[in-house]
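Most newcomers find our protein records easier to grasp once they have seen one. A learned vocabulary of local backbone shapes supplies the integers on the structure line. An example says more than a description, so a record of this kind follows:
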Amino acid sequence: MEDEILGYKFRDAALLDEALTTPSCRMTSPDSADNQRLEFLGDAVLGFLAADLLFRSHPDEHEGPLTVMRTRMVSAAALAAAANRHGLSQRLRRNKGAEGQPVGAKTLADAVEAVIGAAYIDGGLDAARAVFGALGLAERADGDEWTENPKGELQVRAQALVPPRHPSYTLLKTEGTAHEPLFTVEVSVEGMGSATASARSHKEAESRAAAKLLSTLSTTEQEGRQPA
């Protein structure tokens, strides 16, 4: 049983073994303790560590952008990518005969959270922070993960408002022919404004409208930070 991962050496190797045991392992080993409880704890610890890092490293940033950056850092895609970079997938305990898993499998993200939870139990917050730092998640904070998902970013930013709000998408009109339709959609968020965009598909029109509103918000925020 190995007792080290991501540069951290566990005092209780059984904790690490549990963190790397997926629920599917119980199909062939019913008595095995899987990593779901550790994942539950690790999710909370991970969220705190990401928030703490961003709060300290972006002293002039507001809650909305900080929430977006935290979401980028701890998203399932970011965690799965970190798991692959550090070879966690090769160390997972899965049911015998299990097929290969996709690089972005949720199982990998769950395992990362479980390892953080296990480190927290084993060595406290300092141990969890060491594992968190080794994962290299901070580089995702200022990335452009939302470029292809502006609706996702807008949703996160709207939920960060007080009280939380949700984007509302309205189909304003449909033009063109049945084979080449043109949809015009408006998105609005109370307290953030609205934007309108058109596209050949309803879904794409919503995405473009969200991107347009985000662009407007970004411009407004930048202008607000300019010295008088």
